[in-house]
Every structure is written in structure tokens, then in C-alpha cells.
């Protein structure tokens, strides 16, 4: 049995984090049985140290940065941190399931993640941090607010104020998604996924961050309905494919 460690919230499906959704999508795409254990933000570091999960990076002060997702696979007694490393582990441990990082695409996936950080992640963050904060449980809300306010150098409520500032942030995100659409059509052919007709980890990265908007702002929100229409409706069609993997347990 695989255990996925995730961060809870008060939204209906509980799961919200874009990074843990990448792994949640991956496990379901591969048809692997798993369970979820919910961990509040302040408890993540202690959990990781207890089960032997490696830090996913380093904080500005040089200390280890422990984050989720983390999985524990009891069948191999293996603990893996970070969605990209988890994808690589799952491909090796379960070779008879759909590949998340197809052979010979490791370097391309690494480059994609760097580009995706600049093109999409940094543009979604200011839009989604304030509304997400409102749905977190008290221990996580306090941690989330403190760490994100320190990162942005302003109060949570000032990260994406209403009016022209927020409208400009949405337009910036729209430009980023249009850039992804242009990459997908470089050969002159429209395709839904980065590896053609198969879903890869690159696609799961996009889906993980877009579902964050969908779940926190709501399927009927004006913002989500607008995102679905961008680039000729590409992102609405793209996310329809992942509805089959939106189960949470």
C-alpha cells in the first residue's frame, strides 16, 4: 500500500495543494492503490524526519526545507519526497503502468519544470494564496500566513488586492498559459498533452496548478469559467481529461 501525505483544508474534497495534486493524479493515472494521511503545515518537518523523508530543498537561511508531497510505499519500504522524484520512483517501481516520464525525456522534463516555475507557478501564486489561506485549518493557516507574508514582504490581504492589481495578475497568468499553448503547437499541430496523446509528468504539473484555481475559487466562479475559455478553450478541454482522476480518499 502506498501512503500519500497531503495537507488538509475545509473545501469539500479536502485536497487543494497543487504540488500534492501532481502526485495524487500520478497515482490514479497509474491505477495504484493508495491512502491519504493528512498533515497540517507545522507538523510536516517532524513527520518527514520521523519517516526518513528527505528535504525537498533548502530555505533561505540554509536549513532543510521539508515539504509535501511525500509517499511511503510499504511494498518496497521506500519513502520519497517531491513530486518529480516521486514520478521517477513510480515509473521504476511499477514499470507495467503508464510512464509519467517516458524514456529519454528526463532532461526535457527537468527543463520544463524550470520554465513552468517562471511561466505559470510564479503567476498563480499571488492570485491563489489569499483565498487558499481562508480554507486552511487554524494551525496551517497561521503557518501559511506567516511564511507567505515573509516571502512576499506584505500582508496576505495585500498580495492580490481587488481591482486593477488583481485584474493585471490574471492577465499575466493568461499570458503564461498562452505561452504553454504556443509550445504545444510548435510543430503546427494542436495537441492536448506535451508528449502527444499520452499524459506525462509535465501535464500533471499543469493540471495540479489549474485544479488549485478550480477547487479554491469554485467550478462556477467567474475566474475559473474564464480560464477554461482561454486559448480557444484549450484549458477547459485539458482539465476535462483529468476529471476522472479527481477522486480523493
Automatic annotation (TrEMBL):
Highest taxon listed in the record's lineage = Eukaryota
InterPro entries named among the record's database cross-references: Glutathione-S-Trfase_C_sf (IPR036282), Glutathione_S-Trfase_N (IPR004045), GST_Omega/HSP26 (IPR050983), GST_UstS-like_C (IPR054416), Thioredoxin-like_sf (IPR036249)
GO CC terms in record = cytoplasm
Q: Where is the GST N-terminal domain?
A: 7-98
Please give the SUPFAM superfamilies that the UniProt record associates with this protein. Answer: GST C-terminal domain-like (SSF47616), Thioredoxin-like (SSF52833)
Know the name of this protein?
GST N-terminal domain-containing protein
**Organism source for this protein?**
Wolfiporia cocos (strain MD-104)
